[in-house]
Amino acid sequence: MGPEVLAFAACFARTAAWATAAPIIGTALVPPKVRAGIAAALATVLALSRPPIAEGSFFQILPVEILLGLVAGFAGRLALAGLEAGGQLIGLLLGIGFASFFDPASGDDALPTKRIATYLAALAFLGADGLEHSIRALAIIPTDISLVHSGIGHLLETSSIVMLIAVRAAAPLALAALVSNLTVALASRAAPALNAFSVMLAFFLLTGLGVLLATGPAFLDETRHVAELATRAAAEVFAR
Description:
Blueprint: H1 3-21, H2 32-48, H3 58-94, E1 101-103, E2 108-110, H4 112-127, H5 130-138, H6 146-159, H7 162-190, H8 196-214, H9 216-235
């Protein structure tokens, strides 16, 4: 194969890995053929600015290209995962664990609140130009393996705040759940004849609905903040 063809193959390995790990495009909702088409289109553009690759060094460059694509895609997806976990935690605190259903995007059971948080995070990520910054990170030409080390280190820094994002998103409802449990416990102690279990779910749902309505603007602000964080993570993943 010619050096130009090898340069395209290296770019395609990177973009295909990115399309597998990136937010929105990397979900199971996007058919593999569509992801392959997007990867091929991006690789065609990137190959125009890529110097030719000698045949002897292609197989040495290929693993680095795949790692670069995975890191560039996963950098933006990692921060959004915290908001998705927060949505799942909100559903559990509301007591609607029985309403879980199969989510084709994650390949696992998910609560409706997680699906809502996932879609809101995806829209906010698109609104913050996160996908464009993630694609721009693909255009970097690797000079040595230290670039991959830098990207992985950046991922580890971002991963440290995933659970913080989840807890912060569900914090108002967690406090409301604690107050609701105490209220039901005190009511049951004051009136032993009261069947607490018969009113607990309805009380939790009404309380949770009121808290969600009251804290809705704050949750949207948190969603926007997380999307901006994911955008910065995607844009600066290979910053030295």
